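Could you join me in thinking about how sequence relates to backbone shape in a protein? We need material for that, and I hope you will provide a protein of your own picking. Once you have written the record down, we can walk along the chain together:

…
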Amino acid sequence: MAPVFSVLTRRQLGLLLGAVVLLAVVVLCSLAFGARSVPVTEAWRSLVDPDPTSSDHLVVRDLRVPRTIVGLAVGGALGLAGTVMQGLTRNPLADPGVLGVNAGAAVGVVVAINVFGIGSALGWMGFAMAGAAGASLVVHLLGARGRHASPATLALAGAAVAAMLTAVTTAILLLDQRTLDQFRFWVVGSLTGGEDRVLAAVSPFLVAGVVLALLLGPTLNALGLGDDVAVSLGHRIEVARALGLLAVVLLVGSAVSIAGPIGFVGLVVPHVARSLGGPDHRWLLPASIVLAPLLLVGADVVGRLVVRPGELQVGIVTALLGAPFFVALVRRRRLVES
């Protein structure tokens, strides 16, 4: 495979550099703004010249730096997973929810709480990953219809499995108040609460998912031309789809383990990247890694500011921001058809 950045045009490289600069600005805002605002200069000093006696520096280094790092990791994973999923299914409305990955992870967490009595995010990690992997496997087997898994059958199988798993989750929660009390804090989606330990634990899976997804760029381009064309170009489409699903499971399972099921990031970001730099997945994949954290960390900052001194969970903010934005996107015919 050619190096990722060597295949980008000058315009795409410029767009990527601009997005990185914007992301750096949002990261600085994440360190400075919240229930207790810290001057931007002090936020920067807390990184390069920390003062152990400064309460501002302690707030930034102990609370906001881990939270921002979690936002960068979760955002990148969700954006990359959404791009792979849309390329894999040739469905511009696909996201981790469509193929049942989020629903599988939710069932895993509910089982961890209800059956095994586990009450920490770190303990839920393995169950969320296993649930996401199991749901993806079932969707792939149901959608395969023998030898070939079409985008339509995969999407239909994903919707059916997601509905079934959501019903299972709801039934367990209705029967057990204790499970409901713990689960509701996870399901809303948050970047806070000790998730940096979970981030360290899932890092190997996250890195593996990123590498695998980036390697799939040329294959996703070929799949976009149709199965027959992809086969004629020498791609093994079943192997490609299996690897794509594995990348999605690794990325979404890791992100959900850290922060819960955060919606709309994986759905909206690929469209934004496609509108900026075109449909080539060798551009879409690295662009999603930058644009998705830009959206997620920015949404987290907005959530801290709009109801100060309280805050809105980032999953609520992304839904409020993402829903109308996505409606506007799908009303533009050229984006839906791309």
In short: The radius of gyration is 20 Å. The first helix runs from residue 10 to 32. The mean pLDDT is 82.
